[in-house]
Amino acid sequence: MNRRDFVNLNRLGKRSHTKHFLVIIKENHAGIRRFGITATKKTGNAVRRNRVKRLLREYYRLNKNSFSIGYDFVIIGKKNSFLLNYADIKEELGEIILDKGSDI
């Protein structure tokens, strides 16, 4: 995903909020699924941001088939998202990804 695609996704994508994450979804017309992660300084210091990114990458790796083909997904970590463990992330994002994946 290049910068132009990422900016376009942020402007035009469908947004869904959870307590710890913002998920942006948009059709990409490319027939592939693409996944991006953003963890800003609001999330915490570098160690905390990297932890969130590692857990989100692991969530995507293990649940790749739940993400619809032909769509771009960006997950943005909010404040205190570094406090979550993998099970918490799976439960919180599962509500959006599994529900929205069938609605898209």
Characterization of the model:
- The protein is of the alpha+beta class.
- The protein has a single domain (3-103), classed as 2-Layer Sandwich (Ribosomal Protein S5, domain 2), CATH 3.30.230.
- The chain has helices spanning 3-12, 46-62, 86-103; strands spanning 14-17, 21-27, 34-39, 71-77.
- A hairpin with a 3-residue loop joins strand 1 (14-17) and strand 2 (21-27).
CATH architecture verdict: 2-Layer Sandwich
- What is the overall number of helices? 3
Task: Sum up the overall morphology in one term.
Answer: globular
Strand arrangement across the biggest beta sheet:
1-2-4-3
What's the assembly state of these chains?
single chain
Kindly provide the name of the CATH class: Alpha Beta
How many β-strand runs? 4
**Could you tell me the strand content as a percent range?**
15-25%
List the helices and strands and how they pair.
Blueprint: H1 3-12, E1 14-17, E2 21-27, E3 34-39, H2 46-62, E4 71-77, H3 86-103
Parallel strand pairs: 3-4
Antiparallel strand pairs: 1-2, 2-4
List keywords for this structure.
Ribosomal Protein S5, domain 2; alpha+beta; globular; 4 strands; 104 residues
What's a quick, concise take on this entry?
The protein has 104 residues and is of the alpha+beta class. The protein is built from three helices and four strands; from the N terminus they run αβββαβα.
